[in-house]
Amino acid sequence: MSAALLSVRDLRVRFATDGGHVQAVDGVSFDLAAGEVLAVVGESGSGKSVTAGTIMGLTHSPNARIEGSVRLDGRKLLDADEAELRRVRGDRIGMVFQDPMTSFNPVYRIGDQLVEAIRAHRPGLGRDAARDLAVESLDAVGLPEARRRAERYPHEFSGGMRQRAMIAMALALEPEVLIADEPTTALDVTVQAQILALLRRLHRERGLATILITHDLGVVAEVADRALVMHEGRIVERGSLEEVFYSPKDPYTRKLLGAVVRLDRAAPLRPARGTGPLLEVAGLVKHFPLKRGLLTERKADRVRAVDGVSFSVARGETLGLVGESGSGKSTLARTVLQLLAPTSGSVRFEGREIAGLSRRQMRPLRAEMQMVFQDPYASLNPRKRIGQIVAEPLRLHGRATGAELRRQVEELLERVGLAPEHYDRFPHEFSGGQRQRVGIARALSLRPKLIVADEPVSALDVSIRAQILALLADLQEELGLTYVFVAHDIGVVRHVADRIAVMHEGRIVEQGPADRVCERPSDPYTKSLLAAVPVPDPRESRARRASSDT
Amino acid sequence: MARFVAKRIVGAAVVLFAISVIVFLIFNVIPSSDPAQNLAGKNATPTLVASITEEWGLDEPLPQQYLTMMRKIFTGDLISYEGREDVNERILEGVPATFSLCIGAALIWMFFGILFGYLSAVRAGGLLDRALTMVAVTGISIPVFWLAAIFLNYLTYQLELFPSGTYVPLTENPAEWANHLFLPWVTLAIGFIGIYSRVLRSNMLDAMNEDYVRTARAKGLSEHRVMSRHVLRNSLVPIVTLFGLDFGALLGGAIVVEGVFNLDGIGLYTFESLVNQDLPPVMAVVVFGAFFIVLFNALVDIAYAFLDPRVKLGEAAR
């Protein structure tokens, strides 16, 4: 291996907070050789993004204390002054961020934002020449009609196009190093596959040294040469992909690999369930009118969010509802629960038609069907105690009061793996996984028959994700619950669902037993969705690429 | 754009109608406000009062009176009860003084509001920020009439640095125009400078945490450029809304400042008319002021479309 292009030695970053010091990065050392893709893997709070930001000199906070050394081509970066750092940023090290929706300034045209980056480092370059370079760069990342698109604003781009443009901006000046911080996390899986293929191509063509920061082991297997695993600010494992994936030494790495839900592994066989349908949905339609007009709002057009969907769920069964963003899966979930009024179609719960029932008529039925939400941070009222949050449905439905209420809530907390002492705590005192447990306890409080879970684990780290999925499975077993499990990640869905329905543009394009849909998909969209899921297995991933990526 | 304009015109008509009806009703329900009695003077005979009532149409039903008054506002035939002046003419006479006062004050408060807000945000938590915060809070807290009185007492009467109010037309003598308006400008602007700098500061502090600001730094832009092009530029959008509302409202008459500095503008005229319970001028000024508020709201929306490309005129919010 040639001499290191970028070398990080004993990097330590400490933040002073109200609650004392937080050692975000704790003695991190690594080398990045020219032309190599190094993956930095870790869960949230592991210090991986702080490490990347510190390399670029972007850890600005006055509360931060930074020690150690970062050298680019032998030149020290940590002690460099602002002017020197500016010359490095964007010119020698390019950076791509997680969320392409928010990483461009919404008020400037895409092309202008690239030109700004180019002219910051090549002041001698004329405006037109800089623009040509920007267009060329956009063209190189596979943005069709780059010259015309450069005149567009960020909000006129799709997520995938924005991330291409972000990569184009990072690479416009041909830096030696690219730091990509969760570059595909905010993208749909099919778009992610395109961006990963782009990164691989750029790497192959330009020999760009890349630091890829990700929590997703599948992404690592797809593009990286080497991997570092970070945990609580330290590197706990390092080596080639073969070493990290097939003979991990550190227990944390083993736990991380074990927690990954894999699409290509069938879920453990469960006893056949189902004694007649609990929920039957037929021809369900939900359109949102696009309102226009002067005083009267006439319906000019409509968004067909759910466009004629039929399915049924048997008692005790789990139906997985899979789709990418905008497929209508969340709208479908809410329409089924009558949280949104359907435009037309029928929803039968225990044989009774509930579509079109009034709020008052729905109220007793609400206890029977509950929802678990995606974001455990936003779906719990921060000003209420955990006990109050879980007790609220019980109080509203008049199921219990006083000491009996408290006893029932404590029992529920225990059932979802929390302690009764947690009753008087506030949501901010809990981690994401614990909060999701609170959300589940709240949903369970009225002993519902049906639980609709909308992306219940997508905001959680992989190791926490596995725990929550196990909890859901145990509860189903114990309480005979029926689940509709909505998710974008077909791997997760396969793990929990008996049957899978795939949604695309408001319709169910395919439904059937989970194993059949995943192994022998019949619909072309399902096939493309399955092909796009990265496999957290470097050998398999290589084999798959060899057959498609050439 | 055509839809936007049409929508705005309809909106303006609704607002003007509602406001004028409310003002009209208030004047007609408050006690001891028989305009005929006022017009006739202290020792009027009942016959005189009756003939005035007849002449002015004050015995007609209220809706009829309202319609007549509104028609007169728009045809320019409105006559005040007090002094029987042409109301629209008086308002037009007040326009130069009021507009000079408001536009000058607006330039001052926008300049210093943005400057102080920017410096506070860039140096957030530092000494300069704390000093500017104190200045801003003081400026917001000081009542305008008190400040005006203090200025007049010390700067005009004791030190004789500035002339005492009264309006000198710009066309007559530009230097004197500015000299006479300087104190009123500062008095009017100080509170707004405080508010605008605080709003801008918090907008900028929010914007500094945005992902696109991190992107701008990662591109290698200078700190100055990051702040001006990315942070300040995006933070100005809400300031424009605020400005449109405040400025439109002020054009209807900066009543207190004009009153204290004896500037013969719309505000002073409004003040006098209110004291005399003179309904026609008050109605006209209210309609005039409401028109400017609606107009400036529309201009703000147009400015929005330029400042933020995600905003499209004429599309209903989704």
Report on the structure:
The complex is a heterodimer of chains A (550) and B (318). Chain A is built from 20 helices and 20 strands. By secondary structure, chain A is α/β, with parallel strands linked by helices. The longest helix of chain A is centred in the middle third of the chain and has 18 residues, at 189-206. In chain A, helix 15 runs parallel beside helix 16 (462-479). Chain A has 2 domains: 4-259, 3-Layer(aba) Sandwich (Rossmann fold), CATH 3.40.50; 277-361 and 485-530, P-loop containing nucleotide triphosphate hydrolases (Rossmann fold, 3-Layer(aba) Sandwich). With 318 residues, chain B is mainly α. Chain B is built from 13 helices and no strands. In chain B, helix 9 (211-218) packs antiparallel against helix 10, helix 10 (223-251) packs antiparallel against helix 13 (279-307) and helix 12 (266-275) packs antiparallel against helix 13 (279-307). Chain B starts with a helix and ends in an 11-residue tail after the last helix. At the A-B interface, helix 2, helix 3 and strand 11 of A face helix 1, helix 9 and helix 10 of B.
Low-confidence stretches of chain B: 314-318
The CATH superfamily of the largest domain in chain A bears the name P-loop containing nucleotide triphosphate hydrolases
Q: Kindly report the name of the CATH homologous superfamily of the largest domain in chain B.
A: MetI-like
Helix content of chain A: 25-40%
Q: How large is the count of helical segments of chain B?
A: 13
Give the overall shape of chain B: globular
- How much is the radius of gyration of chain B in Å? 24 Å
Q: Radius of gyration of chain A from the CA trace?
A: 26 Å
Classify the secondary structure makeup of chain B into a structural class: mainly alpha
What is the number of independent domains of chain B?
Answer: 2
**Major pleated sheet of chain B:** none
Structural class of chain A: alpha/beta
Q: Report strand % of chain A.
A: 25-35%
The chain-level mean pLDDT of chain B equals: 86
The unreliable regions of chain A are 293-297
Largest sheet of chain A: 6 strands, mixed
Tally the structural domains of chain A. 2
